[in-house]
Design goal:
- The chain has about 525 residues and is an alpha/beta fold.
- The chain has four domains: about 170 residues, Rossmann fold, CATH 3.40.50; about 150 residues, ANL, N-terminal domain (Rossmann fold), CATH 3.40.50.12780; about 70 residues, Luciferase, Domain 3 (Luciferase, domain 3); about 100 residues, ANL, C-terminal domain (GMP Synthetase, Chain A, domain 3), CATH 3.30.300.
- It contains 17 helices and 28 strands.
- Helix 4 packs across helix 5.
- The N and C termini lie far apart (about 70 Å).
Length: about 525
């Protein structure tokens, strides 16, 4: 390893230190400058007593500093905890407390909300940093601290990790430790990971990657990070805008990008003249996942962009476990691909017995060398996701065809995927039930042309409920929930279809919604 370089970046600094590593809305930074910034962040962490085994929460948008912090954590033995910047103070507070984060880094736009979250939390989040030159809301300004920190390589570097939070069926978010990065592991293990990403997932090396979705989503984060660790230039867009996305791809000669179906829909809505002017000749692969993609939407994207779309099936818990290119998909519309090593796909019945091709059942991933994932502070949830050691589920239902291609038909757990984001009805229901005019409630996902699914609240109201209850409920939810979790519409029913045992028949609600008729109480 050469002097003054973070271990995982030294090759690119030696061979092309003046070349651009990251481009964002604020400008660009070279590999050498990135290495120096990462060193300064590591020195800053050390000055504050942060080191191996500690956790640091990050409430940052899509920007260069986000990846500086991430890389500094990965070289300091620190576990970085990404936080969705749309969350409310109580939601952020839960993550800070549950993760045991000792530090939090924010940008000014999110400092006020995060400051309230820190005060509400029960953890030890005493180190509070904000990007920029000036401190706000009790956060210390980062730039003056970095300016006084050493740009020299720290004497001791240690591999860090990430812990991303995903909601559970109970509505309480759980931190996922998926084993991609392991605290204290040798850096050679990360090198093996990047080689795997290159050989199996076709993550580009020394190319140009586009990050055009929230970095706190696992797929966006890891495809961007792994490309960067393979020497690819990372072009970061702060917010998705379909026209600007096309312009960025052509201007920056992007070769790889990750998008979700909702973004495809918005791109296809652009004026036909605008779409014709887009070249896209540099694109080699465009990954997509994060929710079902309507067959017709995908056909139109392939017709427009060519056979560059690569679909995967995966989750925060286990990464990408299947892949399918455009040509294979066109011969099997609707598939999410075949398993990639070291993964296998098994379909099981309710008793856990394997099912043959063509039979629908629960979808499990089987790792050839064992291993899986764990939920932080949730051993029972971890156990329930595993059929046996090394065999786990993301909660989906589907089947395999004779050639081993996976088709998804539903979800075993009550999950809504809207715009590529997981929303758990139990969390939304818990908030709605705190409104005094709500007697009973069910939250369901219904098909939506743009988002895949949208959130609908089915309400059994008290007799004294006001006429403008939907408006009140919207305001009520927004005080406790991020905007993407708030129902987009409400339906009022005299009673919800519950069995004598109290079990709510959401299947009846969904079927009745689709048929356009109010559901009746079920006595089955």
């Amino acid at each position: 390893m050469s002097a003054n370089m973070p271990t995982l970046l030294d090759e690119y600094i030696i061979e092309g230190g003046s070349e651009t590593a990251i481009v964002d809305d604020a400008g660009q930074v070279s590999w050498s400058a990135l290495g120096e910034r990462v060193n300064r962040w590591m020195a800053l962490f050390a000055t504050h007593g942060l080191g191996v085994g500690d956790r640091l929460a990050c409430v940052l948008g899509n920007r260069r500093e986000t990846f500086e912090v991430l890389l500094a954590c990965l070289h300091s033995g620190i576990t970085l905890v990404p936080v969705n910047w749309h969350l409310t103070a109580p939601e952020i507070s839960y993550i800070l407390s549950d993760s045991g984060s000792r530090a939090v880094v924010v940008e000014p736009d999110y400092a006020e909300t995060t400051g309230r979250a820190v005060r509400m939390s029960t953890g030890t989040c005493s180190i509070r940093l904000v990007t920029g030159e000036y401190g706000v809301h009790g956060f210390s300004a980062v730039e003056p601290l970095l300016a006084s920190a050493s740009p020299a390589e720290p004497r001791h570097q240690s591999c860090g990790a990430t812990m991303l939070y995903t909601s559970g069926t109970t509505g309480a978010p759980k931190g996922v430790l998926n084993g991609l990065f392991v605290v204290g592991a040798p850096f050679s293990r990360v090198v093996k990971l990047t080689r795997y990403a290159r050989a199996v997932l076709d993550v580009p090396a020394r190319e140009r990657c586009l990050l055009d979705g929230p970095w706190y989503h696992s797929s966006q984060l890891f495809f961007a990070l792994l490309g960067l660790l393979l020497g690819s230039r990372l072009v970061i867009r702060g917010r998705f805008d379909p026209l600007a996305t096309l312009e960025t791809i052509d201007r920056e000669q992007i070769t790889a990008a990750h998008l979700v179906p909702t973004q495809f829909v918005r791109l296809l809505r652009l004026d036909e003249r605008v779409r014709r002017e887009f070249s896209g000749s540099s694109l080699v692969r465009v990954w997509h996942g994060g929710g079902p993609c309507p067959v017709e939407v995908k056909r139109r994207m392939i017709d427009w962009w060519g056979p560059v779309l690569v679909e995967y099936y995966g989750a925060t818990e286990g990464g990408a476990v299947t892949l399918v290119g455009s040509r294979d998909w066109l011969s099997r519309p609707g598939t999410v691909g075949r398993a990639v090593p070291p993964n296998g796909i098994v379909i099981v019945d309710e008793a856990g017995a394997s099912l043959p091709a063509g039979r629908q059942g629960r979808v499990f991933v089987r790792r050839a060398k064992g291993g899986g994932f764990s939920y932080h502070n949730a051993p029972e949830k971890t156990r329930s996701a595993h059929l046996e050691p090394g065999t786990f589920t993301f909660g989906d239902v589907g089947y395999l065809d004779e050639a081993g291609f996976l088709f998804l038909t539903g979800r075993a757990q009550d999950l809504i995927v809207s715009g590529g984001v997981n929303i758990y009805p139990a969390e939304v229901e818990a908030v709605l039930l705190t409104h005094p005019a709500v007697h009973d409630v069910a939250v369901i996902g219904v098909p939506d042309d743009e988002f895949g699914e949208r959130v609908v609240g089915i309400i059994e109201a008290e007799a004294s409920a006001p006429a403008d209850l939907p408006t009140e409920l919207d305001e009520h939810c927004r005080r406790s929930l991020a905007g993407f979790k708030v129902p987009r519409e409400y339906q009022m029913l005299s009673s919800l279809p519950r069995e004598e045992t109290g079990k709510l028949r959401k299947d009846v609600l969904r079927d009745s919604y689709a048929a356009g008729s109010p559901p009746a109480r079920s006595d089955r």
